[in-house]
C-alpha cells in the first residue's frame, strides 16, 4: 500500500467508528448518572424506565432517518428542523 491510500482511508470516518463513538458516549454517561438517578425507584422501576427510554430513542432515530431520506446529500440537522 502506498502512503496516499492510507491517508485516504483514515481521513473519512466510517460507520464503525461512528457507532463506537455513540456507544462509548452512552455507556460513559450511564455509568455516572444512572446509579444516582435510579436510586429511588429500585431495580424493577429502573428497568421499566430504561426500556421506555430505549424505545423512545429508537423511534426518534427512525423518525430522523425518515426525514433524512427526503433531503439530498449535504443537508444538515438545521435543514431538517
Write the layout of secondary structure elements.
Elements: H1 3-11, H2 15-37, H3 42-68, H4 77-80
Description of the molecule:
The protein is mostly helical. It has four helices and no strands. The mean pLDDT is 80. It is 78% helix and 0% strand.
Number of strands: 0
N/C terminus separation: 43 Å
> What global shape is seen?
flat
Helix content: over 70%
User: In terms of structural class, how would the helical and strand content be classed?
Assistant: mainly alpha
Number of helices: 4
Largest sheet: none
What does the average pLDDT come to? 80
Spans of at least 5 consecutive residues whose pLDDT stays below 50 are none
Query: What is the subunit organization of this protein?
Result: single chain
Task: Spell out the helices and strands N to C.
Answer: HHHH
Strand content: under 5%
Rg = 19 Å
Annotation keywords:
81 residues; mainly alpha; 0% strand
Question: TL;DR?
Answer:
By secondary structure, the protein is mainly alpha-helical. Helix content is 78%, strand content 0%.
Amino acid at each position: 500500500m502506498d502512503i496516499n491510500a492510507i491517508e485516504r482511508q483514515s481521513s473519512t470516518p466510517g460507520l464503525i467508528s461512528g457507532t463506537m463513538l455513540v456507544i462509548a458516549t452512552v455507556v460513559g454517561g450511564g455509568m455516572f448518572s444512572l446509579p444516582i438517578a435510579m436510586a429511588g425507584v429500585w431495580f424493577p422501576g429502573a428497568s421499566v424506565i430504561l426500556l421506555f427510554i430505549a424505545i423512545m430513542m429508537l423511534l426518534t432515530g427512525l423518525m430522523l432517518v425518515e426525514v433524512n431520506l427526503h433531503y439530498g446529500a449535504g443537508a444538515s440537522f438545521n435543514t431538517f428542523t
